[in-house]
Amino acid sequence: MTYAHLLQKANDFKNSLTERQRADLEHPYTFQNASRWHTYPQWYLGDRGRLGVDLSTLSDEQWDSLNALLAAATGSGERDGYAQIQQHLIADDYLRSIGAGDGYGRGDFRVAFLGTPSETGRWQLQFGGHHLAVNNTYENGALISATPSFRGMEPPEFHYNGVQYRPEGHEWDTFVALLASFTDEQLAQARLKETYRDLLLAPGTDWAFPETPSGVQVSTLSEKQRQLVRQAVTNYVNDADDASAHSYLAKYEAELDDTYVSYSGGPSLTNSGDYIRIDGPTLWIELVMDTPYTSDGPHPHAVWRDKRDDYGGTRP
Question: Where does the record place the region Disordered (predicted)?
């Protein structure tokens, strides 16, 4: 998809809205606005809540226009990008259907434009809700940042309307396989002293990257292990549009030897507080198994960030 196509879909969506909805959609581009993403449902956040149009107000035609925009802005893989966003919306519909509360469901998600979509200048497409955050920053007709990008899922697996879903399963499976491939010596070297109940770079902890990486350096791994690291990175980067994902992967591949893998808790990633991190010169991906809220067992929270490109490089 070209930027011109994305821009057309952004304007199509905007033009499909009522005057009141457009007022909710459009906000100034500032760091304070750009950083108003979260992992929690909208109802829980109060005054800290997301900006944008409440998706419960959209007509069927407006939903179609929004989906066309999301498809243009995110990856086309069967388990990534747009397809995964749709499964996240279904997951929240499922939670609502089993009695989690009226604050769940796709209607509780929001979409915002920070700045004005155009061929020049900077603007951000913000889309998110419970366990999902898309923050795409564009400048002068190009995507300059697809991060912070958050994905979580509770329950990790569910059955809804005759279909079995496991939206974040391939990300989790790759991390488990990577740690399972480590020797006892590598596991000892990769283990972090700290314990984690949440992500280190959770919402509100922007630009707080550790100064020194910890763990096993990827340059010391076998080729099979390196390939698992590549796959783990690909699983998250492919949520960006296909062309941008290709560029990100090329950058992270060039930095792979200076990238580190570390973990805390158990390497099976099955218990609350189990944690894994990939930390490179610019790449940052981490996953933690969060305490259960709506299911019997823990569930994954994961974030992809970029030490140079988060929010297009904008800082507070």
Answer: 296-316
